[in-house]
Amino acid sequence: MSAVDTLDGFLALLRDELGLDAEAVEADRSLVDLPRWDSLYLLRVVTLVEEETGRRLPLAPVLQARTLAEIHAVVVRQGSRPEHERHSSVEAQA
């Protein structure tokens, strides 16, 4: 089990590692409304989650996400996919 398996764990990781003000109330807030949010934060979130889980995230759904909760949903979906499907999507992205 990883810290990012739950929304609370995901938000705590963002707070602890990125200093992002990510409380539960912000999870459904539009990313553009989050203080200091920019594209670099998105890249840092992706990198952090990949390091935490040891899995690559599919970029298209992450880029389409509009809230932290939606990014977390992508993380959870990626973690629940069978191993062979995860490898297939990584190869397809390359």
Descriptive account of the structure:
The protein is an all-alpha fold. The chain is built from 5 helices and no strands. It has helices at 7-18, 39-53, 59-64, 68-80, 83-93. Helix 1 (7-18) crosses helix 2. It starts with 6 loop residues before the first helix and ends with a helix. The model is unreliable at 84-90 (pLDDT under 50).
Key phrases:
mainly alpha, 5 helices
Secondary-structure blueprint:
Blueprint: H1 7-18, H2 39-53, H3 59-64, H4 68-80, H5 83-93
Helix pairs in contact: 1-2
In short:
With 94 residues, this protein is mostly helical.
Described by strand count, sense and barrel closure, the largest sheet is: none
Task: Bin the helical content.
Answer: 55-70%
Identify low-pLDDT runs.
84-90
**End-to-end Cα distance:** 27 Å
Rounded average pLDDT: 84
Overall spatial form:
globular
> Which structural class matches the secondary elements?
mainly alpha
Number of helices: 5
- Please provide the ordered H/E string of secondary-structure elements: HHHHH
